[in-house]
Amino acid sequence: MKDVSNSAIDRQRAGSAPLRDLLTILPTLTTLSDGSIDFAAIDAEILQKLAAYADSAMRTTHQGISAIGLLLAQVDSSALSSAVEPRGSISAVGWLLADLGEVLLHLYQLSVTCRLHIADYAP
In sequence order, what are the residues at sequence separation of 6 or more whose Cβ sits closer than 8 angstroms to the Cβ of residue 61? Predict the structure, then answer.
């Protein structure tokens, strides 16, 4: 298994921030009257970039979820001090992971839809 911490450090050093990059490009996209992305109206190069950002954000999110899972698996509940509220913390982490799981589904759908619209594109 790849060391998650090293890949995160490498990304930080390279100045990469996949979620930030994706969130930066989203407001610039053409949308339909219902607010959804008008993929047919967007230049193929932009769709290619958007798909790459979505893929990168998926990898980052997967690695983060995996790292959180590994950390939680190592927690010895008997060693927690009374200063830490484990129930509240575990619940908050659970809600975060649930939301991130939803984000992953949308990122995947975004990436696939972009790639379908540029299937015949050759730069």
Answer: 19, 100, 103, 104, 107
Q: List phi, psi (to 5°) of 104.
A: -60, -40
In this structure, how many other beta carbons lie within 10 angstroms of the beta carbon of residue 112?
12
**For position 121, what pLDDT does the model report?**
84
pLDDT, tens only, 52-79: 999 999 999 999 999 998 988 887 766 6
Largest CA distance in the chain: 60
Which spans in 27-85 are helix H? 44-74
Q: 49 near 91, Cβ under 8 Å?
A: no
